[in-house]
Design a protein that fits this description.
The complex is a heterodimer of chains A (110) and B (115). Chain A has no helices and ten strands. Chain A is mostly beta strands and 110 residues long. In chain A, strands 1, 3, 4, 5, 8, 9 and 10 form a seven-stranded mixed beta sheet that branches. In chain A, strand 8 and strand 9 form a beta hairpin. In chain B, strand 7 and strand 8 form a beta hairpin. In chain B, strands 2, 4, 5, 6, 9, 10 and 11 form a seven-stranded mixed beta sheet that branches. Chain B contains no helices and eleven strands. The termini of chain B are far apart. Chain B is mainly beta. Chain B is 0% helix and 50% strand. Classes of the chains: A mainly beta (110), B mainly beta (115).
């Protein structure tokens, strides 16, 4: 199983929207509606934002939204805020009780 | 408040062994699967595997990169999960996290494999 493909970095200005993609195959992202997204600030443990493609974890602002089309899942952050600057990781179920992560994307708020 | 605390990391030579612990509190540990995730410095997250609950016969699943070398176990009476790592390689160097419950994470324990 190869890691899911994410852009190494994305950036946006405060108030703008950014979208982070997560590309897999029909054996993982495309085959199941079990994609999750994690936010990780430097030196901190990851924090779950989105699960089951588009379900927001309790307490997560509705500025964060998830979607999927084919083998690619996406995380969209609208109304960017300074505190959104972090690394973002996608994760997909890949069958046989196996999970697979993406390589992570660094979001810079300009 | 739910909490997971990893321990047992350290420096080990290639080919060596290490056993990590993950102590849980604040949630129903015995009903929860525990997953292990690692992160090499400056890299993304890598799923290591999971051990399920007693209800699910303590079933384990391992990532291909560690299968046959790593072993998960748990002691529900102590609310603690374990990751035993054998035949360690330099590429196993990473911060190891345990996660469980409603996606609670520990702060990780650092494993360094180097001669």
């Amino acid at each position: 199983q190869s890691a899911l493909t994410q852009p190494r970095s994305v950036s946006g200005s405060p108030g703008q929207s950014v979208t982070i993609s997560c590309t897999g195959t029909s054996s993982d992202v495309g085959g199941y509606n079990y994609v999750s997204w994690y936010q990780q600030h430097p030196g901190k443990a990851p924090k779950l934002l989105i699960y089951d493609v588009s379900e927001r974890r309790s307490g997560v602002p509705d500025r964060f939204s998830g979607s999927k089309s084919g083998n690619t899942a996406s995380l969209t952050i609208s109304g960017l805020q300074a505190e959104d600057e972090a690394d973002y990781h996608c994760c997909s179920y890949a069958g046989n009780y196996i999970l697979i992560f993406g390589g992570g994307t660094k979001l810079t708020v300009l | 408040e739910a909490q997971l605390v990893e321990s047992g990391g350290g420096l080990v030579q290639p080919g060596g062994s290490l056993k990590l612990s993950c102590a849980a509190s604040g949630f129903s540990f015995s009903d929860s699967a525990i997953q292990w995730v690692r992160q090499a410095s400056g890299r993304g997250l890598e799923w290591v595997g999971r051990i399920r609950s007693k209800t699910n016969t303590y079933a384990t699943t391992y990532a291909a990169s560690v299968k046959g070398r790593f072993t998960f176990s748990r002691d529900d009476s102590k609310s603690t999960a374990y990751l035993e790592m054998n035949s360690l390689r330099t590429e196993d160097t990473a911060l190891y996290y345990c996660t469980g419950g409603s996606d609670y994470w520990g702060q990780g324990t650092l494993v360094t494999v180097s001669s």
